[in-house]
């Protein structure tokens, strides 16, 4: 069982940066992929970006490309989301998640961390 804990959220101004962290409670070597999702008030949860755990290849949702960067520290069992040039529409609760297999459902979820961007 892998437990995920996000941290690093907060309230910032438009144009600022934040770095979110996702710490895993145990070895993540069985995970195929980890990802960040977000859910804004009144909206469905959406995919932000993901990373293949073994080789670090990342992909992103179109609206965050060029502004957000996902990385992982294999030995620390941690994943990060560097968010630059934040916009008010990035305001949401951000969740990290992990899946054991390619194309599979996300088996593990964190509790979420709030990011609020004001104009």
Short description:
The chain has no helices and eleven strands. The chain has strands at 4-7, 10-13, 18-24, 33-39, 46-52, 58-60, 68-73, 78-83, 92-99, 108-109, 113-118.
Task: Give an overview of the whole structure.
This protein has strands at 4-7, 10-13, 18-24, 33-39, 46-52, 58-60, 68-73, 78-83, 92-99, 108-109, 113-118. The chain is globular and about 40 Å long. Strands 2, 4, 5, 6, 9, 10 and 11 form a seven-stranded mixed beta sheet that branches. The protein has 119 residues and is an all-beta fold.
Residues in helix, %: under 10%
Specify the overall morphology. Answer: globular
Strand coverage percent: over 45%
Q: What structural class do you assign from the helix and strand content?
A: mainly beta
Mean pLDDT: 94
> Which series of helices and strands comes N to C?
EEEEEEEEEEE
Tell me the layout of helices and strands.
Elements: E1 4-7, E2 10-13, E3 18-24, E4 33-39, E5 46-52, E6 58-60, E7 68-73, E8 78-83, E9 92-99, E10 108-109, E11 113-118
Could you name the key traits of this structure?
119 residues, single chain, seven-stranded mixed beta sheet, globular, mainly beta
